[in-house]
Model the fold of this input.
Amino acid sequence: MKASNPYWKEALAERMPQKLAGEIDTFETDIALRKQGKIDERVFGETRLRRGAYGQRYDSGQRFDGRTVRKLTYPCGDLTKGPHTLWDAPGMQRIKVPFGRVTPEQLEVVAELAEEYSTGVAHVTTRQDFQLHFVHIEDTPSLMRRLAAVGVTTREACGNTVRNVTACPIAGVCRTQAFDVTPYAKALAYFLLGHPDTQEFGRKFKIAFSGCQDEACGLAQMHDIGAVAAIREVDGRPKRGFKLLVGGGLGTVPHQAKLFAEFIPEEELLPVAQAICRVFARLGEKKNRNTARLKFLVAKLGIEEFRRLVSEERAKLAPDARWTEYLKDIPGEDPPAEEPALIAIGSPANGEFERWKAFNVYRQRQSGFAAVTVTLPLGDISAAQLRALADIARRYGREDLRLTVEQNIVLRWVKEADLPALHAELKAAGLGEPGAGTITDITACPGTDTCKLGIASSRGLAAELRRRLFERDSNLDAAVRGLRIKISGCFNSCGHHHLADLGFYGVSRNKDAYTVPHFQVVIGGQWRGNGAAYGLAIGAVPSKRIPVVVDRFAELYRSGRMEGESFQAYVTRIGKAACKSAIEDLLEIPPHDEEPSYYSDWGDPREFTTGDRSTGEGAGMLVSRFDFRMAACEREVFDAQLQFDKGAVEQAASTALQAMLAAAAALLELEGVTVDAPERIVAEFRARLYDTQLFWDPFAHGKFGQYFFQAYAEARAQKTPERVRRLIEESQLFLEACYACRTRMAAAVKS
Amino acid sequence: MNTERIEHICVKIFADWNGANAEAAVPVFHRWIQEDACEELLIDVVEYLHVEGGPGVILVGHEANYSLDFAGNRPGILYNRKTAVGGRFSAKLTQAYEAAKGAAARLEKEPEFEGRVRFDPRSFAIIVNDRLLAPNTDDTWGALRPEIEQFVREFVGLSAFTLRRSEDPRERFAVEVRPA
Done:
C-alpha cells in the first residue's frame, strides 16, 4: 500500500536489533507467499496473529449500510489473510508494550505510525498495549521495522501466546508496594517472548505483576499467572519473592485465580513460570478453544495436582542463566532521587488545576515527586498529542511513561513544584482532562466500532455516559464520583466489566421483527484487592436506557449508603433483588414506531442489525411466545443468583440448570419440536441445534452449548460454591446464545 | 529528489465554522456510503470527536479516507490518499485537491451543515503522508516548492498567496496555502 514500503528495510538496517529484523523479514516473505497462494490461509492467519496483526470488523467483505448488506469489493478480490478475512480489508495492529512502559522516542514513533498507516489515533488497551486500527496487512512489515528501530516488538501480541505482561503503572513509585516489580516483569516478559516452551499453547496466556496485595495494581487475580510482590524474612534478612496465583481470568465466565504458592523466592520466578508454561503446553486443551485457557486446566486437575505437576516439571528444567542474571542489576532499595525536589507549598488559586490535581496526581513514595495520570478519553490519543506528551515527558519526567489498564498514561517523577506548569502544558495539548479513576474515566473495549466480536457499541455508550457525567461533574456526590464504570461490547470481558462497580456488556434482544442493542448490567465487582470480586449480571437493558441505569444506581447509592460504605458493600447489603427491582421498568423495549432511536446503537445511526430482521406474522407470533418463555428463563437465572447469595448453593445450581433446559426447550419449539423431559430436551437440542451447528456462535462456536451439556451431565454431582457461581454465569450466557440463535433462525427464514 | 516517487498526498480545505454540530458528520458519512458518493470504495465511519484537536469524524475508504478533521483545532475537510496514484507530483496533488474540494462542496450542501459551515478552497493545506519519501526537510521543501507554487497559481487560480511550511521535523511535510 505505502509507496515507501520497499525502502524502510534498508533505511533502518543499522537501527534494528538483528533478531527482530530477521523475524520481520520472515513475516514479509510469508505475506508475499500468501499473496501468491503458497501458504494456507489458516497457517498465515495464525502467523499474522503472532505478529500482532488482527482482523477487524467487516473484514469478511460484507457490511450492512443501514439499508442493505453491501459487498465490499476490494482490488485483491477474494484473496484472504485468514479464514473469512479478506486481504485488503483493514485490520488492527497491536503493539506490545511490556508492563506498559514507553519512552518519549517510542511515543513519537507510534505517532508517526498512527498518521501514516492508521487513522491518526493510537488506542491504549486494557492490557497496556497500543492498538492501531484500519491498517493494511501489506504495510505491517514497515510499521514493525519502525517500531523495532526503537526497541518495540509486536511479536506475540495476539494469538495463542504469552500476551503482553502487565504490571502496576506506579510500580517503583508506589507508597504501599513491597518493592518495585518493574525489573521482574521485564525479565519475565522478555524471557518468555518467543521461548520454545510457549509456542504450543492451545490458547492465550496472560501474566500480571502487582506490587501490593490490597490495591487494584496489576489485577493479579484475573490472570493465568498473577505475581504479587512479597517480602519474607529468611535467616534474619528480608528476602524478596512473590505470592503466586494461577488460573485466573475473565473471559465469558470469570475465574478467580488459585493460590499456587504463598511465597516463591525471586530467583525462582522465571523457572517456575517456565514450568507452568510447560505444563500448560503439554496438558492444556488444544482442540476445543473454549476450554483451552489455563483456568480450565487448573479447575480440571485441581490446584494440588497442578502444583505437583509444575514442581515435577521445574525439577526437570536445565538451568538457564537468564533465570537470575537480571537480579544483579536490581537495586535493593529505592534509588535516591537525583536531585532534591522542591515541594510545592500551596498552589495557584486555580479551580481547574485543583480539580485535576485531586484525582490525576499521586504523591510518590519519593518525597517531592508525583506520578501524574494523563486521562485519555476512551483510551484514544492523537499523533499530535503523542508528540506533545513526549515533549512534556522530557521536560518534566524521567522519560518513563506507563500505559495503564484503565486506558490512560502515567507520567512519573514529576517534581511537585512543576505540577501547575505541567497541567498547563497538558491542557494546551488537550490532555488536561481531570477525573482519573473516577466515574467519568470510563473503560471501554473497541466493541462494534472495530471489533469483529462486538455485539453492541461499548465506545458509543462510554462516550455518551462521559458526556452526561461531565455535564454534572461539579455536582456529583463524592462517593458517586469514585465509582468505576467499565464496558465490554460482548461477553468476552475485554472492557473488564466484571471488575467494575457498574459494568456493562453488549447483548441483543428481539422485539417484533427487530433486533435491539442491549447491555447486561453487571454490579458489585471489585477493582481493588487486585480484582478481588467479580460482579454478576442482573438484567439486560436496552442500550439507550443505560444512562438511566447509571443515574438510578448513583442516586440509590448516594441516598442509601452508610458512612464509608463501598458500592460493593452497599449492593451486598440491599441485595440483588432490590438492585434488579430498581431497573425492572427499564427492561421493556418500547415499540419501534414509538421510539425508533432504541433500534439503533449509540453513535451509529444505522438500524441495528436489520439484516437479521424476520418477516411474516406467523414468525412474529412464534417469536413472541419465545420471548415470553425466555423472560421466564431470565427470572430463573436471577433467582439462582439470589439463592446462591443466601447460601442455598445446591438449589441455585438446580435453578440455573432449569433455566437452561427451559431456554433450550423454547428454542426447540421454534424448530417445531415440543419436549418437556430433561433428557429429551438435551437429546433433541444436541441433534437438531448443536450437531447441526445451528446453535453455534460464529466466533465462540459450540462453547455455550457445551455449558448446557456439562451442566446437565453434572446435575447430580456435588458442586463447590465456586463451580455453582460459574454455572450461574454459564446459564446466563447460554440464554444469550439462545437469543442470538433465534435471531439467526429468523434471518434464515427471511432469506 | 525524484518527486514522481512521492505518493499519499493529502489535502485539507479549511472551514469557516458557523455553529455546525460536528457529530452530524456521522450520519452524513453513513449516507455517503449508502449513496456511493465518492469514487473510492467506502468502508466505515469512525468518530474521534472526543480527541481534542484530533481527526474528528472519518469516512474510511480503501483508496482514501475523507474526514471532517480538527487537527490543530482547525476544522476542515481532509482527503487522505492511501493507495498510490502514479504519475507526476502535480497530477497527484490535483487529484487530492479535487477530491477534497468535491467533498467540501458536498458537505456544505448536506442539510445538517447547510449554512453552518463554509469551505474556502483557496485556503488549504497540502500534507505528504510519507516521512520516508518526503521527510519534512529543506530538501523536500526545495524540491516541491516550485511544483506547489505552480499548482496554486495555475490550478487554484491564486496570483497572490503565502505558503507556510510546518517547522517541527517530526511532523509530516506539510504546507499551508493562504490567499495573500
